[in-house]
Design brief:
Layout: H1 2-16, H2 69-85, E1 92-95, H3 99-104, E2 107-109, E3 112-114, E4 122-128, E5 137-141, E6 147-148, H4 154-161, H5 172-183, E7 187-189, E8 196-199, E9 205-214, E10 220-229, E11 235-239
Antiparallel strand pairs: 1-4, 2-3, 4-5, 5-6, 7-9, 8-9, 9-10, 10-11
Amino acid sequence: MTSLRAPTLLLAALALAGCPSTGRGDPPGKPTAEPPTAEPPTAEAPKAPPPRAAPTPPPADTRSTPMTDFDRARAAYVAHIAEKTGAAPDAVAVVPKTEGLAARWRVPAGADTIDPRIGDAWAFEGGQAGDPPYKMQRGWATADGDVLTAKGPLGRLFVEAGAWSDSPKMSIDEVVSRLIWSFGPRHRPTRAPSVKVERAEDGSGAVHFQTDMSAPGGPPQAGTFVITLGPDRTATLEAR
């Protein structure tokens, strides 16, 4: 009877002493394992919105501005000056540069100023960039690429002026004043009218005129010139 109650009394004593019961199968003194604690989920940082795609630019306009009659005439004169001076086309200076400037351009003709254009022939002067004025070469060019100077072909200038038509655009005197301008800054018309025109029924004839030509370091000298007009609309210039 005494032997059965001893274990019971031992357990009761242990409980009163604050020692936890290990239960069956647990070795004495080993603490009871606590259940694992679940970690709280980690909050994710907000994602940045995807970058917006750049707008597609409109297709480039590859169309070139069409050339005007003035542009074509000027290009022909630039090529002419480049050939005469031996310079590259981008190394020559030709004025006027725009059609607007050309329409307002006036050049000296004695005591007056004149529009140097003749019909549809645009007037230009050019040379190598940096050349002094007396080296600038003067002349005309047309939209179809013809370059006209005092050295020829003069017939085209008189055609542009309407010299062989029943209703000329300008008189022979007006053509001569522009031709004298093309000789260069050392030439100017004489004070007294000096243009004399001889014409035949077939359109041939001769134009006589004089200029006051300034010589470097000397007094002005008179220059006498004759333009021979042919019935086939040709013209040649001679100095007398």
